[in-house]
Amino acid sequence: MDDSGKEWRYLGTKEELAKKKCQRLYSTGGKVYDLALFYHEGKFYAMEAWCSHLGGPLFSGEIEDYKGRCHIMCPWHGYMFDLQDGTNEIGLRQEVHEVKTEDDKVYVLYKTELSLSAK
Ligand code: FES
């Protein structure tokens, strides 16, 4: 799947989504395109769901402040990824996706539709 067809995909209200710090977004394109949505200090971040090390589920990780920036720690081997740009200290990288909030509605700029539960 290429990157064409990116659109703002509605995810839900801020009130609803802010209840969880980390959650999985299921893609209509299949599991490989799922995202992880993070909510930290009033801001949302979206990143590929599966860790670029060995495929761990980043939506089950812990958000940590590390060197002055917020990171997700992968639950499998503990590598950290910067929530803002997806970078990692040993050169691994996660794709990140822009998130916006308008009138209490949250959207992510992405190539497939997304939902909070598997369809
Ligand atoms: S699978 Fe994520 S750190 Fe190894």
Task: Give a concise summary.
The chain has 119 residues and is mainly beta. It has one helix at residues 14-17; strands at residues 7-13, 22-27, 35-40, 43-48, 62-66, 69-73, 80-82, 96-97, 99-102, 105-110, 114-115.
Can you describe this structure?
This protein is mainly beta. The protein has one domain: 3-layer Sandwich (Rieske Iron-sulfur Protein). The chain is built from 1 helix and 11 strands, in the order βαββββββββββ. It has a 5-stranded antiparallel beta sheet, with no helix packed on it. A hairpin with a 6-residue loop joins strand 6 and strand 7. The longest helix has 4 residues. The radius of gyration is 13 Å and the shape is globular. The two termini are 20 Å apart. The model has no long low-confidence stretch (mean pLDDT 95). FE2/S2 (inorganic) cluster (FES) binds next to loops. FE2/S2 (inorganic) cluster binds next to loops.
Features:
single chain; 119 residues; mainly beta; Rieske Iron-sulfur Protein; five-stranded antiparallel beta sheet; 44% strand; binds FE2/S2 (inorganic) cluster
Low-confidence stretches are none
Could you say which structural class the secondary elements and strand pairing correspond to?
A: mainly beta
Q: CATH homologous superfamily name?
A: Rieske [2Fe-2S] iron-sulphur domain
The molecules bound to the chains, other than polymers, are: FE2/S2 (inorganic) cluster
DSSP helical segment count: 1
Q: What is the number of independent domains?
A: 1
CATH topology: Rieske Iron-sulfur Protein
**In total, how many beta strands?**
11
Based on the coordinates given, report the CATH architecture. 3-layer Sandwich
Shape: globular
Order of helices and strands: EHEEEEEEEEEE
- CA gyration radius, whole angstroms: 13 Å
Residues in helices, as a percent range: under 10%
Please report the first level of CATH classification, the CATH class: Mainly Beta
Distance between the termini: 20 Å
Strand order of the main beta sheet, please?
8-4-3-2-11
Task: Estimate what percentage of residues fall within beta strands.
Answer: 35-45%
Profile the largest sheet.
Answer: 5 strands, antiparallel
What's the average pLDDT?
95
